[in-house]
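FUSC family protein, pasting as requested.
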Amino acid sequence: MHRPEAARWLKHPLRWQRGPVSGAAVVRGALGMGPLLAAGVASGHPREAVLAGLGAMFAGINDRPGTWRAGVLQMGVPAVGGALGVLLGVVGAAAGWWAVPLLAVVAVASGAVSVAGPVGSAAAVQLLVFAAVGSGMPLAVPAWVKAGSYLAGAGWIVLLRVAWAGAVHGRPTAPGRSGGGGGAGERLAVAAVFDALGDALAAVGTADAESARRRLTAALDRADEALWLRGRLPLPWERRAGRRRLAERFGAAAALCEAAVALLWEGERLPERVTEGPRRLAEAVRNDGVPGPLPTPVADSPARIAFDEAVLAAGLVFGGGSAAAAAQAPGAGRFRRGVAVWGPAGREYGLRVGVCVGASTAVALVLRADHWYWLPATAAFLVKPDYGPLFSRVVNRFAGTAVGVLAFAALAAAVSFAAPGSGWWGPVAAVTAAGMLMPLAVRHFAFQTAVVTLAVLAFVTLGGDTQAAAARLADTAIACAIVLLVGHLPRLVDTRARVGHRTAHALRHTLRYLDHVITTPVHGRDPRQRADLRRAAYHALAEARAAAESAAAELRTRPDPDWLRIAAGAERIADAATACAVRLEHGAPVPGQETVRRVTAVLAEVAAVVDGTGGRVVVAGEAEGCLTLDGILDEAERLSVLAAG
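Structure tokens follow.
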């Protein structure tokens, strides 16, 4: 049943992310902020210790599951952004009221950079937050010491992450094997692709088929990123043979996934034994071994023939008899051709962040002359469009801050939270507990806000501000009100720029993929090029769906297209293109030039309608040749009407 719109934005604040909690991340949290703070205070450098603790806190927030190489990227790049923000804050501290346009400009750039992806977004928000914090937090130390202390704190968490990987997995010992720390995380990422493939095959013909295919796309993205990072951040003891073998196995997974999408498109339930092959291959990847006998194929349709051929090819690859499947793997990381930073989405992001942060800075300077940084820093977190629906973030931010303030007050009443000199162990214990909770807290924005508030109040107490709690809660309430009002102004909530642009971007990637499929002779195709085009399309579609899901849970002030339905239709077009590729390779008639022209023209027109750059409502005609082109034309017509309506 279709839920009413009000239910989406009212229920979204209650949603929790699911997934296992990393025990290693909990240990790193315990060894992060608290020990750094204790060492700094004990050595007589509490101000530097506070900045180092803040660097460790934000690195802990970005300490997500994945390979250690991914961790270095996810924590290290944002830390550099935060250090640059600290340096910018020195300029803002001396600027007085000029801090308003300065932070507004930084906010516009931060919002625009957010479209580059999660790592760029995290770096942009740390740049903006610490430009505000550095402008308003009085710390009488040189600028380079501030930035260096912040980087040192983040670097400590990164070092713990790398050291943990080496301690748990160790160095490879068997000749020619990728082994432990040299590639254990990457092997797990590739094995997860085979596991997701088995789940997708089990879901064929059920209501869970589309969501299972999306989980498969996400697993492919993670594995592709892991292999890309492994090639760019190699360890000196890693063996090339292990890297090559893992790339070949990922190639086998990519070939199997293409054939599996064709099975999903056919929609007929599959016998259980069909899922056994991918699961055995997953176990073989995890153990860096061989899968043993695979299920005997039964070819009774073009999609089943293609899948069975891919299973046989994978068996050869895992047995060491062929490296041909490596040609099927997309170029690692090469599919990441994201939307332009200063395109429509980037401009919309930047304008919204700039206006909200600029307004918050001006109000903060009117209300108080010192310690005004909390208000624009809070606005920076709230207004980031890629962090979820605005109303949900506002509700959770205020609730989390209130809980954090109450927790801090309770701890302060129970133990000594004095300034440096007597009872500094209380704040150290508080930030240590906050560090341990952080891996669990990232599951919900309110929980994360409460933990961060507790840690920050402990930090500022050590800095000498013992009356910060009430002011922080008041500033948060003001920031929430500003962001809720300003962030919903008509010019700042253009979902066609934010969501339609991403959907059109995905449709154009799909068009390039489909054009390659139906215009390139079967025997003249480059498997790597087709794999690159396919991965680019599905990666862009995943981003479009994420944006559509966020927009669907927004508090709407104007009627918008049903972006979720449009994103689902775009995904079905990409699935149809993949099924078309498989059928053409197995004897389906090649479409005529007029059919090709009509299909490509219709998809280009739909993309223009979706992002509002032009176009008209298109109506598809009859199609000949490959059967899946009929579905593409029908789906394109529905998308066009939805986007125009």
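Note for the archive: Confidence is low (pLDDT under 50) at residues 1-5, 171-182, 618-630, 640-645.
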